[in-house]
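Researcher: Quick one. two chains, 228 residues in total.
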Amino acid sequence: DTEVTQTPKHLVMGMTNKKSLKCEQHMGHRAMYWYKQKAKKPPELMFVYSYEKLSINESVPSRFSPECPNSSLLNLHLHALQPEDSALYLCASSQRIGGYEQYFGPGTRLTVT
Amino acid sequence: QQQVKQSPQSLIVQKGGIPIINCAYENTAFDYFPWYQQFPGKGPALLIAIRPDVSEKKEGRFTISFNKSAKQFSLHIMDSQPGDSATYFCAASGRASGSARQLTFGSGTQLTVLP
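Model:
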């Protein structure tokens, strides 16, 4: 089973709202990733967690705040977003941070109004 | 150095045709080359991958050809079907800082297979 699940599927939020995206995997993977994907573009890496610790932050604005409460869960907390932050947010996981295969979830379609 | 160049941007073939998508890279530290298939509104799905010690890999109707000296690799889809219509991303992976491994994606190819 190579399933990564994400909730919600769709999210509409105002610029003053606070919301969270959730990602879950039960493959025993110890590396988890957040990506942002704009229409007709490839995914862009935002954050990497390895063994529940933040390993890579690709200079993402502080209005995006990741959290990894345990080895199966990854959250992305959103606050004071801008309309240009509207995108598909993808979670992925790999066996470990040096692992080859990354498996993506279905994504959360975020619209900031 | 980190870029992966993908072509064509879009591709239309008839059912049964063999679409070919090409990618080229510069960074010789890349050592893993996956292809992802993405349907509208879905996340990318790992389709097939190759490492530079082999020149070809087949999985079902999908074949990767790899030319290490030219730093190029390509995806061939045999007997293409309308259900193969999707966006295809090539990617390359190598060791980043420490033991981290990051994917560098190509720009994507939108494939349409006509019935």
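The mean pLDDT of chain B is 93.
Researcher: Thanks, that's what I needed.
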